[in-house]
């Protein structure tokens, strides 16, 4: 069964800090929403047992998710 990534553990920031910063930074808020959306797409694609989503599509989604995570990290570090 597919499992969502723990973004807060990956970021090495407590959830409370990220949420506080999210309220103060519209760009960070948008990036976090985008990450959640892509993560949900990855989970849905992984859950499809009929193979509707191709491996290439899944790989592209994972690359996008990682790219957004890096943008979130940079945003958090920039505003620290």
From TrEMBL:
Gene3D superfamilies registered for this protein in UniProt: 6.10.280.50
Name of the molecule in the record: DUF465 domain-containing protein
Record organism: Pseudomonas reidholzensis
């Amino acid at each position: 069964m597919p499992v969502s990534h723990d973004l807060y553990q990956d970021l090495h920031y407590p959830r409370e800090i990220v949420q506080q910063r999210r309220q103060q930074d519209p760009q960070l808020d948008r990036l976090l929403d985008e990450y959640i959306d892509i993560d949900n797409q990855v989970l849905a694609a992984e859950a499809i047992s009929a193979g509707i989503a191709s491996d290439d599509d899944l790989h592209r989604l994972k690359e996008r998710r990682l790219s957004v995570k890096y943008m979130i990290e940079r945003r958090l570090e920039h505003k620290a």
